[in-house]
Amino acid sequence: MANNKISWPPSTQLAPVPAVLLGCGNAKGYSANLITVAWCGIINSDPAMLSVSIRKERYSHAIISETGEFSCNIPIPSLAHAVDYCGVVSGRKVDKFKACDLTALDGEKISAPTVAECPLTLECKVVEVKELGSHDLFLAEIVNVRVSPEFIDEKGHFDLAREGLLAYCHGGYYNLGEKLGSFGFSVKK
Amino acid sequence: MANNKISWPPSTQLAPVPAVLLGCGNAKGYSANLITVAWCGIINSDPAMLSVSIRKERYSHAIISETGEFSCNIPIPSLAHAVDYCGVVSGRKVDKFKACDLTALDGEKISAPTVAECPLTLECKVVEVKELGSHDLFLAEIVNVRVSPEFIDEKGHFDLAREGLLAYCHGGYYNLGEKLGSFGFSVKK
Lengths: 189, 189
Known about the structure:
Number of strands of chain A: 13
Distance between the termini of chain A: 30 Å
Number of domains of chain A: 1
CATH architecture of chain A: Roll
Strand content of chain A: 35-45%
Structural class of chain A: mainly beta
Helix content of chain A: 10-25%
Strand order of the largest sheet of chain A: 4-3-7-10-11-6-5
Order of helices and strands of chain A: EEEEEEHEHHEEEEEE
CATH topology of chain A: Pnp Oxidase, Chain A
Oligomer: homodimer
Largest interface: A-B, 97 and 97 residues
Shape of chain A: globular
């Protein structure tokens, strides 16, 4: 295969990435707030940890820095409008739960609110913040997982992809499509 | 909305996540190798940075630790078999480029190999490694981006999702489905 590739300047083109609703606030004088982040990933399995990167100037940056807690709520495709809205509008001016008609539920192990309409929530406590430049990287431990029973099938399996799942790719929100295989399928006899 | 959610123990259930082929080696005595990682995310925009988490016992962990470089190759759905294989099999025993019939191309700004069959490659240099427990977190700067000209349309737009895009969710590989909207659509007049 010929090497006909073109070089472009460094940029953040990894895709697809998740687009999740972080719930924060309900502590230290802050009201419940939401922010959408696409720069979120699992970073460790034992203990279970994830990271999120947030620009310093965002309202939720201050809230999460001061409270040390957030919920990571995984949306379904019907929430695409809310996911976009919560990434564009500032919680300094708008009650995003109200504006998006979303329901704030108390977290079980954290003070930060969780989103009832999301079938999966990871409750997180910040363990370290690293300044990287435009963004700060919050390293957090996942201290609890909340799931909606409607997504658990007769066999007890939690099927998050049942109603699709929201992914973000180069400025667009996408639904998940067909399943191509399960982990390990390439070496199954 | 009633709070009927069920609590589960902490686990790494974020989804969807990318499933990317990291190319490493071609330096310090190591041959070209590949490893699939799902725990990969953008962490900063200026400078452009991403992170990957790799278990200490993986062969690629040693290679990337010693060489300080890797390529992050974003696959298309037709590569699902190779993506799975490179996450399951060890490069200590197998030449994965050969086994998967993939073509190693030289990186432009790094010694690590890149994957010709992937339309998008992020060339990365490690700036810090953090031990988190089961995994080490490699924080890396994206020093160059390589794109396949076949994915650039008449208007000069790079359309990575044109042939679909591979996402990973709870043990399954998925294609991307329909586009649900573009960033900012919720506030457009």
